[in-house]
């Protein structure tokens, strides 16, 4: 039974939550302290097909505004009912991207973090499930004063409330709202209605709508056809939304005639119809937008010109240009890196690793060929032959037993043949197992994730350790401090190139975790006395977080219990990946001066 509340209590509750309590056709929930006109909104919607790159468009335009000194808060509004992405299958939905605050979200948030070079929080992501849950919980606690609770105004009201709260909390000049799915889907229709209402309530020059659409070029016709685009845009207009900007996706640059038709049928001036055709790199999109004047169009539409900081913009533009220049220049150093994973099926499951390697390769001038090794298909004995051609190997995170023996064989090969190695999460754990078996002579060494009865559970499920952080038996999630030991490879990699905090025993860095199992402290001494170095650990507890082999025994062998790929950004490449790429370059060409390469890593400050 819900607790009974007095009418006055309920009134207070609603007012506190910003909900108008008197009977009115307007339901305009506004958080306390919200100033209308202070915050502007850009809504990005997709028409015709999904997968158009709304997130890329949205983050690129957001970047242009951020570069101008404006503060930006993006939000992804998903149509599905899941509360977060933690339970989604990465093989279907792409990787689970973990935010610093521990929210398990989808890869689109990764795109925003990378392009904006900004950490996001759980406020930057919502699902229909979250919205409904809030409304239903409020209904159960008597929060609607006996009214019938409806999609409009209550569910749409909750959407508007969240957006305004986000604006307020993150003090955003501009909130970029990306609605998942396509206009016309059942799942997102209440978001679209809420956004229409938001534009109405916020008044003039406060909300801009961007519609992404797609122009088809059937090979048999050899010309671009805009009918589907027109129909998609019509659907949006039927929902009461007049687009202000149209981004036209296409394989090739969109022809003038297609742009004109789209402009004419959607009442959008041609100068605001942008050809967002396929490009070599998504990182060139911000510049292309600027060249077509989209940034200043947005400023005009939202009346933001007087908030621009020109000096900030010039500096940001130079940094980005330098990166793009490096990205496009010919790379002299060819290297091959192998990743254990099934690329074809998992393209998006390792999106952040792909990007992290790209950031580092760009900065170091490496021309990288990535190859994917499906360890479920290669027997451990066949691993050495399969690895011969590589200059570096990554064993990424994973769950479940399949393919782990072959992963261990990969690690053994790298350790014995001095091939640069980066182990991530499961790849860290398997490196411990490999070392325990083959160096410490603990033949049965295993992780209890795969073998509960092993005599040497070097990797184990240790809920009591997690209780220290108040996590109980759950997955350890999100950003945590890692204490880095001085005079180690990890210290060299992170020192000066990363935001670190001093600590009595070295310095701490912050990285993001998503794991259940960890090194059993009972084996630490045995592992270390046989030569394994734990160069990163929990600042107070014996929880091991970075491992490495001594520099004089291996050129580059490192593993992280966390996911370094989640914090790599184009202008702030991740140190462990930089180290891997540099070491792989040396592996391919021993004449390369790795020290000089390492020392040129003042990328973070200069970019
Ligand atoms: N399965 C391992 C664990 O739960 C590793 C997890 C991961 O690689 N993300 O600890």
Mean pLDDT: 89
Text of the CATH class of the largest domain: Alpha Beta
Distance between the termini: 59 Å
Total count of strands = 22
**Strands side by side in the biggest sheet:** 11-10-12-13-22-21-20-16-18-17
- What is the percentage of strand-forming residues? 15-25%
Return Rg in Å. Answer: 26 Å
| CATH structural architecture of the largest domain | 3-Layer(aba) Sandwich
General form: globular
Low-confidence stretches: 1-14, 602-607
Approximate helicity band? 25-40%
Query: Helix/strand/pairing class, anyone?
Result: alpha/beta
CATH topology type of the largest domain: Rossmann fold
Largest sheet: 10 strands, mixed
- Give every kind of bound small molecule, once each: glutamine
How many helices does DSSP assign?
A: 23
Number of domains: 2
Task: Write the CATH homologous superfamily of the largest domain.
Answer: P-loop containing nucleotide triphosphate hydrolases
């Amino acid at each position: 039974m819900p607790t009974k509340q007095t009418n006055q209590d309920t009134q207070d509750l609603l007012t506190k939550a910003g909900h108008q309590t008197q009977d009115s056709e307007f339901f305009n929930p506004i958080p306390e302290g919200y100033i209308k006109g202070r915050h502007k909104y850009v809504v990005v919607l997709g028409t015709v097909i999904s997968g158009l790159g709304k997130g890329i468009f949205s983050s690129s335009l957001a970047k242009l505004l951020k570069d101008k000194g404006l503060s930006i808060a993006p939000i992804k509004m998903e149509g599905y009912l899941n509360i977060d992405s933690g339970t989604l299958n990465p093989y279907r939905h792409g990787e689970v991207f973990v935010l610093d605050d521990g929210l398990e979200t989808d890869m689109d948030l990764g795109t925003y973090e990378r392009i904006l070079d900004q950490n996001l929080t759980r406020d930057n992501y919502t699902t229909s499930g979250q919205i409904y849950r809030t409304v239903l919980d409020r209904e159960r606690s008597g929060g609607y004063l006996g009214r019938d609770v409806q999609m409009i105004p209550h569910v749409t009201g909750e959407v508007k409330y969240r957006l305004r709260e986000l604006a307020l909390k993150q003090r955003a000049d501009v909130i970029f709202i990306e609605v998942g799915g396509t206009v016309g889907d059942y799942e997102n229709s209440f978001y679209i209605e809420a956004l229409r209402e938001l534009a109405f309530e916020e008044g003039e020059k406060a909300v801009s709508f961007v519609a992404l659409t797609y122009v088809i070029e059937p090979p048999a016709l050899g010309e671009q056809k805009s009918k589907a685009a027109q129909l998609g845009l019509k659907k949006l207009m039927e929902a009461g939304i007049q687009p202000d900007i149209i981004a036209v996706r296409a394989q090739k640059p969109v022809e003038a005639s297609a742009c004109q038709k789209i402009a004419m049928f959607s009442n959008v001036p041609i100068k605001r119809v942008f050809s967002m055709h396929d490009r070599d790199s998504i990182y060139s999109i911000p510049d292309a937008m600027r060249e077509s004047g989209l940034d200043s169009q947005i400023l005009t539409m939202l009346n933001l010109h007087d908030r621009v900081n020109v000096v900030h913009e010039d500096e940001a533009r130079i940094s980005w240009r330098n990166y793009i220049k490096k990205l496009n220049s010919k790379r002299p150093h060819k290297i091959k890196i192998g990743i254990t994973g099934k690329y074809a099926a998992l393209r998006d499951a390792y999106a952040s690793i792909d990007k992290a390697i790209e950031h580092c390769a760009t900065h170091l001038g490496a021309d990288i060929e990535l190859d994917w090794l499906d360890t479920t298909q290669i027997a451990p004995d066949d691993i050495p032959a399969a690895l011969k051609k590589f200059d570096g190997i990554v064993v990424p995170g994973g769950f479940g037993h399949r393919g782990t023996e072959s992963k261990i064989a990969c690690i053994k090969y790298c350790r014995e043949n001095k091939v640069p190695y980066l182990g991530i999460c499961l790849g860290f754990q398997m490196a411990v197992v490999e070392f325990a078996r083959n160096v410490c002579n603990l033949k049965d060494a295993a992780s209890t994730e795969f073998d509960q009865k092993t005599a040497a559970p070097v990797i184990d499920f240790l809920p009591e350790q997690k209780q220290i952080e108040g996590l109980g038996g759950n997955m350890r999630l999100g950003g945590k401090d890692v204490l880095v030991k001085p005079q180690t490879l990890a210290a060299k990699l992170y020192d000066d190139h990363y935001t670190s905090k001093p600590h009595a025993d070295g310095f701490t860095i912050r990285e993001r975790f998503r794991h259940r199992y960890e090194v059993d402290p009972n084996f630490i001494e045995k592992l270390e006395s046989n030569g394994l170095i734990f160069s990163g650990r929990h600042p107070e507890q014996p929880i091991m977080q970075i491992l490495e082999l001594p520099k004089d025994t291996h050129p580059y062998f490192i593993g992280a219990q966390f996911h370094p790929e989640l914090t790599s950004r184009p202008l702030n490449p991740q140190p462990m990946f930089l180290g891997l790429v540099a070491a792989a370059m040396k592996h391919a060409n021993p004449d390369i001066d790795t020290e000089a390469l390492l020392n040129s890593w003042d990328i973070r400050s200069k970019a």
